[in-house]
TrEMBL record:
Species of provenance: Aureoumbra lagunensis
Record keywords, A-Z: Hydrolase, Metal-binding, Protein phosphatase
Name by which UniProt lists this protein: PPM-type phosphatase domain-containing protein
Record has RNA-binding as a keyword: no
Predominant place of localization: membrane
Lineage, uppermost ranks: Eukaryota, Sar, Stramenopiles, Ochrophyta, Pelagophyceae
């Protein structure tokens, strides 16, 4: 018996009409006879170049890396580890190419990978790799339940804020030990301030400069007690740290033995070996690359120096001062004349590209994987997995409950895509837009046993749907 794979896809431009989102469906044959299939959604921003490069090159780069590793028969757990490493490296390599060429566009990436046996041409392993806020959702159509869902890599997530802080901490230690060549000309201290300029506890944080002050962490929350958004700014070297406030603000509430209560090993950026070196190597290249390419654009971009990084609302109402828009990670530069030059802001805490944005926004992927049933046992099992990959143009408009309902009650994957797109457009128009609120791209992939058509849950049913396979 066999596992059958069917898919559907849809994409449409948002209100700006640019459509920087991209979709990809690729299949490659490895030298050891195995087949690897890719289904990907890339949500581009600041241009389409980063997303298009991922479409053209991701599968090729992964195949090249795997062909050098899969030359021998490997245990399944070792094979999965190598596959993750290959995908992670491919993302970093694409990012490096973009930045080295002076391309400042960025993109998210959410990819479903299916690994096939070389003899039966049947998939036995499924994996989702993602960077950014394009979400992957895995739905068990037989049970009527969601069993996997990726998290958003954005600064509104506490875990992502902690990872940003871990990266800033790592880079500060590297600067102190001389392991990174950065554009630091003087020691600076960064403190959190509310938008009206009043200091929130005089608590210092890790920034893009060579800091000599004690470090505390309050980046776990982007609001102070009054609800005002917090951001990073600069303060003179002599500013004192309020340790009592630091203790209350720190996500770990640690003792301030050495003035550095936050241990990056406690909330690791990732368990991937070599990540720290990748971050430092990327930072050094960004400093040089951005200077070279930005100098060529204007005389204003001479002797550029990274000034600060902040996390806060995209803008504020000029009348009320209240935050407007999503929370973003911003970067700023200054030239030798002291002129402030705004850098890029991103709504994501991880992305591919975006070399003009914060250097803490890195192309490090997260992974989730699961095994598919052996093909020799699919004769009588009820197996039907449906995977949805979609950009935030869908998730920011439709409630998750509605999305899951369509996944559960629409048999054909292309029909399900069309229904989701139709609902997203209607909801956007109802909210005052003339078309889709944002660029919207999605792919649905069905993996099921025997090609049988399960009985979908009745509309509005509260019980799980059942499946009869003949």
């Amino acid at each position: 018996m066999a596992l059958y794979i069917r898919d559907g896809a849809a994409i449409a431009p948002g209100r700006k009409g640019k459509n920087e989102d991209r979709l990809a469906k690729k299949s490659i044959r490895l030298r050891n006879g195995k087949k690897l299939q890719f289904f990907s959604v890339f949500d581009g921003h600041g241009g389409k170049e980063a997303a298009e490069k991922c479409v053209d090159e991701l599968h090729v780069r992964v195949a090249d890396l795997l062909n050098s590793s899969f030359s021998t028969i490997l245990e399944k757990d070792e094979e999965e580890k190598i596959l993750k490493s290959a995908v992670a490296k491919a993302f970093w390599d694409i990012d490096d190419d973009l930045g080295s060429q002076g391309i400042t566009a960025g993109t998210t990436a959410t990819t479903l990978l299916l690994l096939f046996n070389e003899d039966s041409n049947q998939p036995y392993k499924a994996m989702i790799a993602w960077i950014g806020d394009s979400i992957g959702l895995c739905y068990d159509v037989v049970q009527g339940t969601r069993f996997n869902m990726t998290t958003r890599h954005n600064p509104e997530q506490d875990s992502e804020m902690q990872k940003l802080q871990a990266i800033w901490k790592l880079r500060k230690k590297a600067q102190r030990s001389g392991r990174a060549l950065l554009s630091t000309t003087s020691s600076q201290k960064k403190i959190f301030e509310t938008l009206d300029g009043s200091c929130s506890g005089q608590t210092s944080a890790i920034g893009d400069r060579n800091l000599s002050c004690d470090d505390t962490t309050i980046m776990n929350d982007t609001k102070d007690q009054s609800g005002k958004m917090l951001s990073l700014s600069e303060e003179d070297e002599g500013t004192q740290i309020n340790n009592d406030t630091a203790k209350r603000s720190s996500p770990h509430n640690s003792d301030l033995d050495d003035g550095s209560p936050w241990d990056p090993d406690f909330v690791p950026i990732s368990d991937r070996p070599g990540l720290a070196e990748d971050i430092l190597h990327r930072e050094a290249k960004i400093t040089q690359s951005m200077r070279n390419f930005m100098r060529a654009q204007s005389p204003d971009f001479q002797e550029l120096e990274r000034q600060d990084t902040d996390v806060g609302p995209r803008s504020c109402c000029p009348l009320t001062g209240k935050p407007i828009g999503p929370i973003v990670v911003r970067a700023a530069w200054s030239n030798r004349k002291g002129k402030h030059i705004a850098g890029a802001s991103t709504t994501v805490s991880r992305s591919i590209g975006d070399w003009d944005a914060s250097r803490a926004v890195i192309p490090e992927a997260d992974f989730v994987s699961w095994n598919l049933p052996p093909t020799e046992n699919t004769d009588h099992i009820q197996f039907y997995h449906r995977v949805l990959l979609a950009s935030d143009g869908l998730w920011d408009v439709l409630p998750q409950k509605r999305i899951e309902f369509i996944l559960a009650t629409t048999l054909d994957p292309q029909d399900a895509c069309d229904k989701l797109m139709d609902d997203a457009k209607k909801k956007s128009i109802k909210s005052g837009f003339r078309t889709y609120k944002d660029d919207t791209a999605l792919i649905i992939v069905d993996i099921k046993a025997n090609g049988a058509l399960p009985k979908m849950a009745a509309a509005g049913a509260s019980t799980p749907c059942t499946c009869n396979i003949s």
